[in-house]
Structures are given as C-alpha cells and as structure tokens.
Design goal:
homodimer; 447 residues; alpha/beta; TIM Barrel; two-stranded antiparallel sheet; 15 helices; 38% helix; oxidoreductase (chains A, B); Diverse_substr_monoxygenases (chains A, B); LLM class flavin-dependent oxidoreductase (chains A, B)
Chain lengths: 447, 447
Amino acid sequence: MSSPKQISLGLSMRYLGYHAAAWRHPSADPDAASKFSHYRYIAQTAEAAKMDMVFLADGIGLRTKDEPPGALCRSHQTLELEPLTLLSALSAVTSHIGLVSTASTTYNEPYHIARKWASLDHLSGGRAGWNIVTSWSDAEARNFNRDKHMDYDLRYERAAEFVEVVKGLWDSWEEDAPLFDKASGIFFDQSKLHALNHDGKHFKVKGPLTIKRTPQGRPILVQAGAAEQGLEIAARSADVVYAAPLDLESAKAYYANLKGRLAKYGRSRDSLKIMPGVTIFVGRTREEAREKFDLLNSLVEPQLGLSYLYGQMGDLSAYPIDGPVPEPENPVVKSMAKNLLALARRENLTIRQLYTTIAAGFGGRILVGTPKDIVDDMQAWVEADAADGFNLCPPVLPLGLDEFVELVLPELRARGMFRTEYAGQTLRENLGLTQPVNRYVGEAAVA
Amino acid sequence: MSSPKQISLGLSMRYLGYHAAAWRHPSADPDAASKFSHYRYIAQTAEAAKMDMVFLADGIGLRTKDEPPGALCRSHQTLELEPLTLLSALSAVTSHIGLVSTASTTYNEPYHIARKWASLDHLSGGRAGWNIVTSWSDAEARNFNRDKHMDYDLRYERAAEFVEVVKGLWDSWEEDAPLFDKASGIFFDQSKLHALNHDGKHFKVKGPLTIKRTPQGRPILVQAGAAEQGLEIAARSADVVYAAPLDLESAKAYYANLKGRLAKYGRSRDSLKIMPGVTIFVGRTREEAREKFDLLNSLVEPQLGLSYLYGQMGDLSAYPIDGPVPEPENPVVKSMAKNLLALARRENLTIRQLYTTIAAGFGGRILVGTPKDIVDDMQAWVEADAADGFNLCPPVLPLGLDEFVELVLPELRARGMFRTEYAGQTLRENLGLTQPVNRYVGEAAVA
C-alpha cells in the first residue's frame, strides 16, 4: 500500500470570514477585522495546526451612497486592515507559518513590491509570499487617477512585465555579496551587486534593491488567474496557485492544463502547488452542518445580497427578489455576468438563491457535511489530480478555523494526509519547493 | 522658580547608525541592519527609556559599478529593511513608543500611503507617524520610470496635493459610522461613510478608505523641509518637524519662522513640535568622548568618504584628498553643493576634513562631550526657543542608544527635562497634541 499524498493547507483570513453575514453570527465580534488581536489568534491557531500559510486577499474599491441602491455593500466586507502591514506585524508573533498577501500589479510600482516583500521575507525568517493579481474593478481604478479599470490585455501585459522586474530586483545582491570585512573596510563585494537596468514597455527600473538576498532566495509567488494570460504567468513564475474551479471535472482539466505548461519553462510538475479555495461548513452530523449553513444564509439581508451580484451583473434592485434572474441590462463585468446567468438558468435559481450562493463563500466552492464527508471530498480531489492542497476560506472567523482544527484536521491526519510537525523553517521548505538560483551566479566565471 | 520645559525625544534608527563607519566599530554586528532582532532591541530599549518615537528615514537609490569611482558607497548604508514593514513588525513587540517612517510623495500613490499608515495606526493602538518627503535623487528616480528626479517646484506642488488627499482619505469614516447592529443587520451608517471625490492637478482619488477612523484620529504627520514650500506644508499640516539647522542662531530663526506661520492656518504654537536632529558622542570625560569620535572617523576609508560628497558635489576622486575642496565641475544638487563649498571655505577644510564632517553624522549636527556638556547644549536650545525636543541620530547602534540611556538621560531627568512615565497610550497623547476633528462631523446637522 502506497502512502497517501500529503496535502498543503492555506488559510484565507480576510475580514471576519468569507460569508457575507459572518459578522451577524452569534460567535462573531463584528469589530474584530480592525483588531490585531483577531488576526494574531487566527495566525497562531493555524500555526499550531501546522498549516502552510495564512493568506490575505485584497482589492480596495468601496462603493458609496452616490451609487445605485443595488450596489451598496453594507456587510463587514468593507472594513479591514491593510494586508502588508498586518502580515508584517504577524511575523513578529509567529515562527513557522507562511505569510501571503495579494498586491496588485495594476496600481503599484515593481520596485516597491520587490522591496516590501523582500523585507517581509527577512522579518519573518523566510515566510513571505506575494499573490500576483491585476485589478479589474472601476471602484478601485477611481482611487488611482483613472475613471475605468485597465483593459484585460493591457493589464496582463503589464502584470507579466511587472513580475519579471520584481524577480530581477530580488537577484540584485548575490548571496555572498556582503563581506562585512571590518579589517579592510570592505562592506560588500561590488562585483556581486547588480543593477537590473530594465527598460520595457511599461516599466523602466534600474535597481539594485537596497535589501540583501532573502532567506527563501525570493518570496513565494502565488497566482490565481484562470484565463490564458494568467495561466502563462503562473506556469512561468508561480510556486502556488489558488485555483477557483467549482467542480471536480473543471478542476482536473485546470490542473492538467496548468501542470502541462510547466515543462516549456523548464519546470517539474512538483514545482507548482495547486490549492483550490474551499469554504467548509462542518458538523458532527450532516444535519448540524446544514443548520450552520442555513443559519448564516438566513442572516443575509436582500439589499446586501444584491450588492454581491452588482460587481458582476449591475443593479438588480428593481426586480422581484424571489423571481427569476433577469438578463442583466448593464453588466459590470460581462464575462462574469454571463457565468452567473448560466449558473442561475442551469439550476433554475431565483435572485435570492443566486446571491445566497455567492454570499455564502464569496463565490468559491462550498462543502457542507461531516468531517468524513469533507475529507472524502478532499481526498477524491487530490487522488484525481485536481489539487495538491486547499486554501481554506472559513465562513466565519475565528469559528470556522477552530471547527476545522477540532473536527476536520484529526480526520485528515488519521488518513495520513497532513503533517503533525513542520518540515522546515521557511515557507518554501514546508511546501517542499527548491531554493531558486540567483541569475548572476557563475556569470563572472563564464564571461 | 518655574518648572523646566519638557522635551520630546525621538530616536532615528536607520542602518547601524548615522556614522559612515559604524559597521566597523568593535561593538557592531555588521549584518544587524537586515535583522529584526536588532531593531526590536532598539525599539524596546527606547520604549523602556520612555522616548516618544523611533524613526526610520528613507530614500532608495543605490549607486552601482557603472557609475563614477567617487560615487560608490561601500558602507553599511546600502543594506537595510523596508521601513513600513519593519515598523509594522515592531508594533507587535512594543506598546507605547511611536513608530514613524518616511514615505516619498514623489513615487507613491496617496491612497496607498493613507491606507498603510491608517493600518499601522490601528495595529499599534495609535502610534503611527508619517514623515512627508519629496525625492530629489536621480538614483531613486531611475527606479520609478524616470531618468531624472522631478523639479523642485513640481515635486513640492505634488507633495502639497498628496498630503491633502491623504488627510481627506483619513476622514472617510466618521468615528461613529460603524454600528455593528447584529439584530437589524446594519453594519454601518451609510451617511457617515464619505467619498473624497478629489480631482486635482496631480491626483484623482475617489475614496473612501477601507479602514475605519484610527486611534489617533489620523497618524502623526512629520516634515523636515527647510525651504519655502516645505515650510508651508509643515505649517499647514505637520505635527512634528525634524529640522536640520546646524547652529543655535539658524535654529532660533527657523523656529521663529515656522512657529510664526501657524496662526494663518488657525493653529497654536504648541500644536507643532520642532525636534532638530543631533548625533551625540558622549563620554564620562571630554577626552573619552573625543576618543570615541576620533576612533570612528579614523575608520572612514577615503573612497567611502568621497561617496558622501558625491550625492551633492559630484565625483571628486581626481583631486588630492588632503588638498582644498575644489569648485565642483558637475554638482549633482547645486544648492547643496554650494552650501558644502561655503562650509569648506569658511572653516578652511580639506576634502578629507569635509567628508569626515558629513560622514560622522550624515550631515547633521554633532555634539561631543560629557553628559553635562550635552544636556547644557540641549537645555540652551530649548530655553532659547530653538527646539521643543530632539531627534537623536546615534553614530553607532545600538551602542549610541545604550550610552544615551546610561549617561545622558539621567542628567536630563535630574534637571526635570524629560518624563519618567508615559503620559498616555498614543503617540499623539505623549506629544501633548490634540485629537483632530473629522471634517464631516456635524455636516449633516448644518446641511
């Protein structure tokens, strides 16, 4: 009998959880997402459970009262702390767990991102990760000197160049460039400090970085893109992908597609971990799990529910909430609106039923059941080559994490699917990934 | 007898200290500036001493081997951690001390700065401060899509607008906007969340911020600019100014000038603290202090010394090091080169003597003497209305801080000039500044 495949586990800890009504749950402190103590508890609990990483998604458009009534999000998913500052603070009160957050390539400068994540990698002793995204919301664009978001092609072209600049800056200092030779007065070897001299279509960046090579060589790179250009960025550079497929067949196809692209970049299939997101409602019985799910869904106000559809489909507040989902008149993001409409037609959903589906787990995959049900599903995905692990998106925090640790983790461990001790000190070691080689190493010898 | 005026104390903790040869000092770990433990020790020591704040200056141009020989800085002042991530980490291991760092208005977006500093203010329970600067170095410009730095007028115009946008975003959420009403399902009062809708020459920013009003109302604003436009930004918005005058007469004039500008913005003279920078070499005797000073200066290699002049005067490596300072052929920053040349002529300095002056304290004011000498000088400045406190820039860290705490602080306290306990929990409270009022408060009632 072969030993089962080990899975990687991440924990998404944005807001008070992924459910739109999380803050109304009896267990929730509705003000917690502005408190460091909330995140400290979550990160330390996830670390005690030996999870690979905590993750903070990001996106910073907030709609206000001058927008259509169906647009206004009055949930807890409006207030939070900024991810990079929060992860940095958490680095000081944790020792092993990875610290990953999103930063957009659309409204940042590559020098800033390279520098800040390199610094986090040093602060944490090799536990930093950057989730590479592009920004597609107009609400976010309006905070950065634009009226509309950038076109898909343009922002992905910018993203691809952005990532190459950041990786280049992370190679500025060779590992052995610092000499620290007090006697001679030579602080570092000038020949091992490199200017990048990047001059491309979107960026002109000379370098070098003012931060020495980091414990992980470079921070872990994460990607989530499902479309063509995102897949290529992932195949070329990502260490981890938070994929979003909702069913096993799509997940298998996605996994095969992405892993199949690695060879052309000289990468092995094991050099990239695919960790689909999942929101879990677990109970000791199926009835208990279903009750937890129904309780939260009953707490979603219609106005709030509509706002979860607005981002893709536009304002639906003029239609009957328990009637069929209409063809959207002014979809905000056409491709996403089309997907949602197809889902509604296929499952014959009302507007209320559609927004509940989205509001329950921010549009991600949802599992409701006993520990055995949940782990059966996870194991099936891993054995079918649909996932290397999972990115947990608890409906309510910290409750959903505590329940996972109490109920699901023992079942995963009983089946030998998840570690009981960390393998190493860095996130890279715990994910089983190799240290990258600096592009300049051996250059002088060759030249 | 009136009680003496209480001073404010800040501690600059960039690199391994402000002296160019700090890393060669016998006490120094030359790799410390890349280690969190180094800064944690410094911040916790400064907090135990009840200082107001630790401060990280910033500027991110690093010259490389393709530049003139006289340009290359091979000191420890090339490697560090990124200030915002570092202060965020320190927020988790300190409880009272202020956490202040520089961020440039030239190469950042106001939304990012507003958001990150608001987050740091929450993480730290009200201890964040932002030092507002513009960037004037070409080396930095070349990391941000430019060949040359921006003109003075343009970058100060941008800075002034930048600060107004950031202050506006910090008012997004009124204090009582969050309602957290689980029963009704109303998370916040939509009428108390405000879009800024800024549309100016340099920035178009809608808002609102996704972070609620911070413990200090808004983070502390710090400024250091000495020229006209910087003074106006300081008079309008700054809570603290790190002024750089080198002698008492200039400092008195600067103090009178800046404090005199406050009234036109409706501000009291006490609402802004002027804290000139000072680098202290202290000994139990004057001889001991002078030996410490001489030891470090003897460790500055000529090539390194020249690089400290390059940033202003250009490459002087072709001139005899012990000869007179020449009229620079290609000054990098004309106004600064002119000041340095005037200093050299006035004091009849050689190139070596000029760079030693700069290299000993990064161009700031230097005090060498016994605790009584040092405190006499400080007291004279405070009583002459030249300073409200001081920003300490130790030559070597952590040694310079430890010596200050051991030798100078008792003398300051013996004269009743510095606290023995913190007055409050926030930086604002400890500086004795009042809480700002949100611009929207009472607006609805008036309208």
